[in-house]
Amino acid sequence: MNAHEVNFDGLVGPTHNYSGLSFGNVASTNNGRAASNPRLAAKQGLAKMKALHDLGFKQGVLAPHERPDVASLRRLGFSGSDGEVVARAAKEAPAILAAASSASCMWTANAATVSPSGDTADKRVHFTPANLNNKFHRSIEHPTTRRLLQAMFADENRFMVHEALPAQMHFGDEGAANHTRFCAEYDGAGVEFFVFGAAAFDERYPKPARFPARQTLEACQAVARLHGLSESGVVYAQQDPATIDAGVFHNDVISVGNRNVLFHHQRSFLQQDRVLDELSRKLAAVGGQFVAVEVPESAVTVEEAVKSYLFNSQLLSKPQGGMIIVVPEECRNVERVWSYLQKMSTSGGPIDEIRVFDLKQSMQNGGGPACLRLRVALSESEIAAVNPGVMMSEQLFVTLNDWVDRHYRDRLTADDLADPCLLDECRGALDELTSIMGLGSVYPFQLA
Ligand code: SUG
After folding, report:
1. What residue ranges of the chain have pLDDT lower than 50?
2. Is 174 marked active-site?
3. Distance from the CA of 364 to the CA of which of 102, 120, 173, 372 falls in 20 to 30 A?
4. Is there an atom of ligand 1 within 6 Å of 239 CB?
């Protein structure tokens, strides 16, 4: 095999906090205004990255963004020096300052949609940063995400980093959280599976009633066109709107796929049988045998799935065969979920090992193991072309932990976001980080 899946996890930024910004994301709403611990959050994420690196998986790091985002605050009319901009926002519109201070870029499953070179017409790896336009605090991520991806995947003969789709509800795009690539092996052609919550231009598709559908069919189709995917290599499915109303704000809260395996809930998609059949047919055409591991409602309810984040897991192929499922500790706390996992891993099925991680700081904002990583399938020569400064290693792990210790607070509340020192702390940390990771100038304060 000369291609691998590389996981790029988001390094949690210094302003990690709970501001209740994501209507439709139950954990975010429930924990709004709780005190956070940015230092612990970053360390929990780094510990997962290092553990998977130590198991032999290829692991990279995506750097956090500059926060508070002064440029966004200026666009909204706050003026003066950078310090004055923050102080005015704190006084006149604390909710807007909180949004501009979110460390939400840590959830890199929402950073972009990625198509490996085996699937694309020009045989380059394509990235489309997600516009994340459903939530203001996330809609400000894509310009920096794009610059970071360009600094990591700079070789234009191998990589193509597109602009985000038009930032408009018709093209609401949440990136890889609603996208899975199936394949026999990571090299060669695969089948890309796009899951949407609603259609913007076609009234025939149903919509959720309570919570927003963040991803549209039209966004999925635009990404497939930009990436040069073939019709035979793409499957579209609509998420069951009733599950969105139950708190499944992204498809990766109800299903996860890897290679030829889809692990999903009985109520994941509309016309589920048709969807599974199309995946099976299209994967067979590129030499893969599709396996669906479906969890029935009688074993785990949608509510239990949302509470435990069972499906917000990572499936990792072991070199000797079989797959590891990486789950958050919350799965252990929901009895029926934990017993389902025990049974599944000993049933003789494709997923035969469980690894549990403490990611509570991220989980309290609705971000589990799968949210924290962006998957990029790369050939060995493509891996060799990635900026080496972003790849996890013994050394980088030690350096980043030390960097976190020196720059991060261990407690942050809503009131602390008004502290003018936070901006300077964040900029100082990121200036050092760009040189640690060899990223050049990627942040607004470095480009000014
Ligand atoms: O977009 N939470 C994120 C969680 C993203 C999870 N990602 C995936 N499922 N792939 C969101 O809702 C909460 C921030 C706050 O409330 O402070 C937040 O943005």
Report:
1. none
2. yes
3. 173
4. no
Is the shortest distance between the CB of 371 and ligand 1 below 6 Å?
Answer: yes
Rg over alpha carbons for the chain, rounded to the nearest Å, is 21
Catalytic residue among 174, 218, 278, 330: 174
What single letter denotes the amino acid at residue 265? Answer: H
Express each pLDDT in 17-68 by its tens digit.
999 999 999 999 999 989 999 999 999 999 999 999 999 999 999 999 999 9
Cα atoms found within 13 Å of the Cα of residue 51, Cβ hemisphere only: 14
Helix or strand run (H / E) with residue 6 = strand 3-10
Taking the CB of residue 7, how many other CB atoms lie within 10 A of it? Answer: 27
State the pairing for strand pair 125-129/159-161. parallel
Phi, psi of 368 (to 5 degrees): -95, -170
The single residue of 371, 382, 407, 426 carrying the catalytic annotation is: 371
Distance 371 CA to ligand 1 centre (A): 8
Q: How far is the CA of 212 from the centre of ligand 1 (A)?
A: 13
Tell me how far apart the alpha carbons of residues 199 and 276 are, in angstroms, rounded to a whole number. 20
- Of ligand 1's listed atoms, the one at least distance from the Cα of 176 is 10
CA distances for 246 relative to 218, 290, 309, 326, angstroms: 24, 28, 13, 23
Q: Are 6 and 376 in contact (CB under 8 A)?
A: yes
Q: Is the CB of 21 under 6 A from ligand 1?
A: yes
**Å from CA of 112 to ligand 1 middle:** 15
Give the model confidence (pLDDT) of 120-167 as tens digits: 999 999 999 999 999 999 999 999 999 999 999 999 999 999 999 999
Helix residue spans in 227-356 (DSSP H): 241-245, 272-285, 302-308, 330-333, 335-345
- The owner of tokens 């499944």 is 248
Please give the Cα distance from 50 to 53 (Å, whole number): 5
